[in-house]
Design a protein that fits this description.
The protein starts with a strand and ends with a helix. The chain has seven helices and six strands; from the N terminus they run E-H-H-H-E-H-E-H-E-H-E-E-H. The model has no long low-confidence stretch (mean pLDDT about 95). Helix 4 links the parallel strand 2 and strand 3. The chain has a six-stranded parallel β-sheet with strand order 3-2-1-4-5-6. By secondary structure, it is an alpha/beta fold.
Length: about 190
């Protein structure tokens, strides 16, 4: 089976990292906020578009930013993913559309984060054309959280599971999961 897993807000907790930086820069921005809309400034109290753009600039200028992200997936789910990769029965593809930061390139930073989290070497593909890529690769199942990527995957006929976040609930789709583990349970029956 060929499986595609997005990284941010599935494996890593990008939202929490973004909010931490925003709070450090602007103390009036709260640390704990339910991200309900894809654009942070539209749902985070006291965060303006101009402030959000300054946070993005700090992220772009942070050396090896993606290697420092906290995990979103539980330790148990990450260990299970590592075991599944080590078994070699399925092909796992990690596809992300992250933008560059200072330091190592996005692919290497992402691979290093995953390797540290699951103790297995993996390859990461950096692309914003996930649907087309998954179609070419013959991906049978995918999991993503970003509304635009979910729609692109579905438009290309990929069996897509949505990692449930408030910002993607407007997409009417029956395949929703709350965690990486739930996704793996659903496809590996």
């Amino acid at each position: 089976m060929k499986i595609m897993i997005d990284i941010d807000d599935i494996l890593t907790d990008f939202n929490r990292a973004f909010l931490r930086i925003a709070h450090e820069m602007f103390e009036e921005v709260p640390l704990k906020v339910e991200v309900r809309v894809w654009d942070f400034w539209k749902c985070v109290p006291n965060l303006t578009l101009e402030m959000e753009e300054k946070v993005w600039e700090v992220i772009r200028n942070t050396e090896d930013f993606y290697e420092s992200l906290p995990p979103y997936a539980s330790e148990e789910d990450l260990m299970r993913l590592g075991d599944l990769i080590a078994e070699g029965r399925h092909e796992f593809y990690f596809i992300t559309s992250r933008f560059p930061t200072k330091g190592r390139n996005v692919q290497i930073q992402s691979q290093r984060w995953i390797q540290k989290a699951i103790d297995e070497q993996v390859s990461v593909i950096v692309s914003s054309r996930k649907g087309e890529l998954c179609e070419v690769l013959g991906i049978e199942y995918a999991v993503d959280d970003a509304p635009h990527h979910i729609e692109n995957l579905l438009d290309h006929g990929i069996n897509t599971y949505i990692l449930d976040w408030p910002y993607n609930r407007h997409i009417e789709h029956r395949l929703r999961v709350k965690s990486l583990g739930e996704f793996l349970d659903s496809i590996l029956i």
